[in-house]
Amino acid sequence: MGANAVTTVPVYTAGEVLTAADLNITNSGIPVFATSVTRDAAFGGAGEKTLAEGQFAYIEATKTTQYYDGAAWQSVGVTPGLVLVSATTIGSAVASVTISSAFSATYDSYKIVVSGGTVSANDEALRLAFGSTATGYSMACVGTVYNTNSVNAVSDNNASSFTRIGSLLTDGIQANFDVVNPFLAKNTFVTGAHVFPGSARNFAGLLANTTSYTAFTLTANVGTMTGGTVRVYGYANS
Q1: Which of 100, 166, 207, 214 is the most buried (most CB within 10 A)?
Q2: Residue 17 has pLDDT above 80, yes or no
């Protein structure tokens, strides 16, 4: 945390003797927090202010000033259309990585980008599953071969995951796809593209149920992954 960052926003009582630390918080103006997590934890507890409309906060992690509109935190100034929700580093020599609390009521649609890291098996596929659901994934993937301009296509119906959501390559892990309705009680859709040795692939998939998901898991079709980052972005609803 920076020098101005705090972990609580205190509320004082009549006749209370204030310490130097109390005054330092009071004199800092807009309260500064390391992350949105520490911001949320600073309100509503014992001796803390109740979060209410008009509260301001500065977040060091995103370098943004925010205000509370009575229902949610909003960025001051121009609200970006695409907001970073989370960035997760993949562990060492793991077959899969689960991103918890990726989806919420804040956004209806998301972009997920995976990059970097190393793999133990080259030229393999990356798989995607939502929550604990292990059936019902249908997907079509069409690729164009660079040097021959030929087209190849594969599809899955009622599979245990979306089987070709990204690539495991010598240069690292690569995936870039959009997810529509994961948190809503509606069918979940995925669309995206990735590069595979010798070809470029586009895909679209459907998970036909009305389950509300908050998490997803990426799994190496063969071998393990080390490092790399999974970034989840939310598309602003308005």
Answers
A1: 166
A2: no
Measured CA distances, 170 to 80, 107, 116, 184, 196 (Å): 34, 34, 10, 37, 11
pLDDT per residue as tens digits for the range 82-105: 999 999 999 999 999 999 999 999
The answer to whether the Cα torsion of 206, 209, 215, 220 is positive or negative is negative
Cα(31)–Cα(9) distance, integer angstroms: 7
If asked whether residues 32 and 117 sit together in one domain, one would say no
Q: Which residues are registered as beta bridge partners of 176?
A: 113
Residue 9 lies in a domain: no
- pLDDT at residue 78, rounded to an integer: 64
The pair of structure tokens assigned to 60 is 């060091």
What DSSP string describes 34-58?
A: SSHHHHHHTSSSTTBPPP-TT-EEE
Instruction: Give DSSP secondary structure letters for 134-160.
Output: -S-EEEEEEEEETTT--EEEEEEEEES
Domain match, 51 and 144 both: no
Cβ neighbours of residue 205 closer than 8 Å, sequence gap 6 or more: 137, 138, 139, 140, 162, 165, 189, 190, 191
36 plus 100 within the same structural domain: no
Last residue of a domain, one of 31, 52, 75: 75
- Residues 199, 135, single domain; the answer is yes
Provide the residue range defining the domain that includes 123.
82-235
β-strands 56-59, 32-33 pairing: parallel
pTM equals: 0.69
